[in-house]
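Private note to self, pasted from the team thread so I don't lose it. Backbone tokens:
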């Protein structure tokens, strides 16, 4: 961890009770979350299907925290305007899903939304080389995307360290987010490697909503 670097927690609502999504977003916001992480899956880029812009619009009134929308979709450009209009504050796309990544990032920015790039575990950090002057957030997947509750891939720790150095070289404020298998047993390693935003689904949304604050605090320490 870099000295003085605050660790932010982005609970993934993929593990929330979808029948009570508004209350879940409110509960986790009051429990000390920093972002609300929203996983969008299209059953094409990843083998699962989740929610669309209307659900993002529906949860927007339940929190003042940034809605951090992770697009695991094959053709992100077609969906970016709708998610921006629905109230997303950050839109993260996969480098593997955009044929013209720079254009996709410019499109996100044109909607006054922060832009992020995510890499699946098999993608090298060099895929970020020519977007470092544009991105606001880099998301390193620490599982193969598609499902909550998978096991953390330790193979991604050197990539997190490498990207931390790339960010330092820019002198820009870029969030370094990790997503997948993050729990108290794995958070220490990713923080040491340089991550400063931890996405966690199953480690936060478990048990009673009154326990969410304890789960979030456990990830920070
Ligand atoms: C996985 C999603 C994650 C997922 C994380 O494809 O992008 O955000 O919800 O879930 P956990 O924390 O349970 O691994
Ligand atoms: Zn995610």
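Design output:
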């Amino acid at each position: 961890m870099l000295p003085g670097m605050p660790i932010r927690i982005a609970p993934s609502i993929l593990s929330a009770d979808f029948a009570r999504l508004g209350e879940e977003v409110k509960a986790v916001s009051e429990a000390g979350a920093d972002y609300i992480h929203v996983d969008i899956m299209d059953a094409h880029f990843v083998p699962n299907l989740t929610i669309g812009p209307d659900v993002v619009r529906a949860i927007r009134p339940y929190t003042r925290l940034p809605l951090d929308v992770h697009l695991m979709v094959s053709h992100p450009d077609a969906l970016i305007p709708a998610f921006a209009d629905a109230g997303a504050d950050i839109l993260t796309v996969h480098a593997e899903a955009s044929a013209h990544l720079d254009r996709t990032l410019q499109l996100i920015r044109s909607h006054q939304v922060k832009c992020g790039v995510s890499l699946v575990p098999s993608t090298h950090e060099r895929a970020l080389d020519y977007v470092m002057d544009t991105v606001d957030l880099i998301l390193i997947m620490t599982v193969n995307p598609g499902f909550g509750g998978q096991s953390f891939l330790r193979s991604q720790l050197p990539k997190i360290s490498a990207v931390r150095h790339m960010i330092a070289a820019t002198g820009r404020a870029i969030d370094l987010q990790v997503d997948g298998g993050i729990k108290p047993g794995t958070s220490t390693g990713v923080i040491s490697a340089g991550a400063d935003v931890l996405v966690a689904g199953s480690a936060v949304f478990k048990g009673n909503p009154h326990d969410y604050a304890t789960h979030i605090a456990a990830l920070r320490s």
